Amino acid sequence: MSSSASLQLDGRAFIHGQRCAALSGQTFDDISPVDGRIICQVADGDAPDIDAAVAAARRAFNDRRWAGQAPAQRKKIMLQWADLIAAHADELALMETLDMGKPVRYAKSVDVRSTVNCIRWYAEACDKVYDEIAPTGDAALALITREALGVVGVIVPWNYPMIMAAWKLGPALASGNSVVLKPSEKSPLTALRLAELAVQAGLPEGVFNVVPGTGPKAGTPLALHMDVDCIAFTGSTRVGKQIHVMAGQSNLKRAWTELGGKSPNIVFADCPDLQAAVDAAASAMFFNQGQSCNAPSRLLLQDGIYDQFVERLQQRLQDYQPADPRLPETTMGALVDNIQLQTVMGYIQSGLEQGAQLLGGGQQALQNSGGFYVEPTVFAGVSPSMRIAREEIFGPVLGVFRFTDAQQAVSMANDSSYGLNAGVWTADINKAHTVARMLRVGTVHVNSYDEDDITVPFGGFKQSGIGRDKSLHAFDKYTELKTTWIKLRTVL
Ligand code: NAD
């Protein structure tokens, strides 16, 4: 296991296979949410750094040093990269914990593991996905091929820094693109390390570049860049809308946005395993300190089980008490920074002011640590018009609602501008299927929540975004379809 003292933290950019300072020479402080200390100086990238990274990526794409390699060779290099990430699991996990505050046990068992799995899965896809021949008849041979877009700009958030990057890097690189990645300014370190490991594994220089920096200074020039063919964004709905505007204002680059959520979790009175539903409601909500786009932050309980469910849920809160995320037994770490802490505390205050009933939590925790911790918080008596019912809080705050029948549950669940995930708990397969079909969301979990696999697409309806990460469908984002129509003459 790496220790904080032995960890090498390097915040310089990574362009054309080399570490480099920002061209301006500017840096910003990387503050650890674990204890509020500065852990590293990070290159404060802006437009000239983005220009340099895009130029490196363009050169790499145009000379086909990556796109021109046989798919089996691309597979081999990506598998070596995944192996190297796995070999550095302890280092990467601790780096992630120090950078954004999640418990180190999950940084390793979830973030590193999922990243490795994702890169391996897309590596394997390199030489297993076939193109098509259209049924045109004997007079023509019409090929439908998928071709790499060119230079892909990737902008990701801080909640799952490695996984969010891997969901885009896997399919973008497997299909032969070059990438310029801008990680969140709140969690830049693991992305930079992933790029170093990629080159170590044999990825040609310039194919994968990373420019750290803020959204306005580094993200905007990437989204507006005239030589970037696609922008793949994960983050808030507010910034996601700007990304589509910037794509339209510049070169009509392809824009894909994976955005926020306010996901409903519906528990019917005939739930087959109430304790499993209680456990999942708590674990999916409080995992990652509630900073998950698909967190089931609206819990809808049917009349018959309401009291019993709430009582059991309150008992589970003790399992999610904030503690130092570097300790192996910790289940709930720190929020990413003081801004997020203040945002979450503001929502808790608004819940109290608007008349919701606090069932547990509600306080800042571990203030003497210097870090940014909040107790797992549950509100009952939440009405649909309250801010805590409508807005994405992105912290450990759960709202509980009561419903009478399936019709009401569906209309409450769909009463949101978001449409990312939902849960449905019932023993009745007909009810489960009917309700699942009526929910306007990208993923419905039945008798579970947050079970996951790289084989299924992830993304949202409505203002939760446009496009899908994961699965073979993700290739749609990073490839153009080309038709090659070959006219034939019958010779026999
Ligand atoms: P954010 O939108 O503030 O930032 C996301 C990224 O965009 C960061 O890298 C940031 O620097 C950059 N950015 C900010 N302003 C920009 C601008 N003007 N131009 C270009 N880039 C800019 O989001 P966040 O706070 O980092 O992340 C939390 C959000 O991400 C939540 O809303 C969460 O639901 C969402 N999220 C969605 C998914 C999904 O798959 N749907 C997954 C994880 C997180």
Written description of the protein model:
Helices cover 37% and strands 21% of the residues. With 492 residues, the protein is of the alpha/beta class. It has a seven-stranded mixed β-sheet, sandwiched between helices. Strands 9-8-7-10-11-23 form a six-stranded mixed β-sheet, with helices on both faces. α9 links the parallel β12 and β13. The protein is globular and about 75 Å long. The termini are far apart. The model has no long low-confidence stretch (mean pLDDT 97). Residues 155-159, 164, 182, 184-185, 214-216, 219-220, 223, 234-236, 239, 242, 258-261, 293, 392, 394, 420, 460, 464-465 line the site of nicotinamide-adenine-dinucleotide (NAD).
Low-pLDDT windows of residues? none
Kindly report the average pLDDT value.
97
Q: Specify the overall morphology.
A: globular
Percent of residues in beta strands: 15-25%
Percentage of residues in helical conformation = 25-40%
Number of helices: 15
Query: What is the total tally of β strands?
Result: 24
Bound molecules: nicotinamide-adenine-dinucleotide
Side-by-side strand order of the widest sheet:
14-17-18-13-12-20-21
SS-based class: alpha/beta
Based on CA atoms alone, the radius of gyration comes out at 23 Å
Distance N terminus to C terminus? 70 Å
Mind summarizing the main beta sheet?
7 strands, mixed
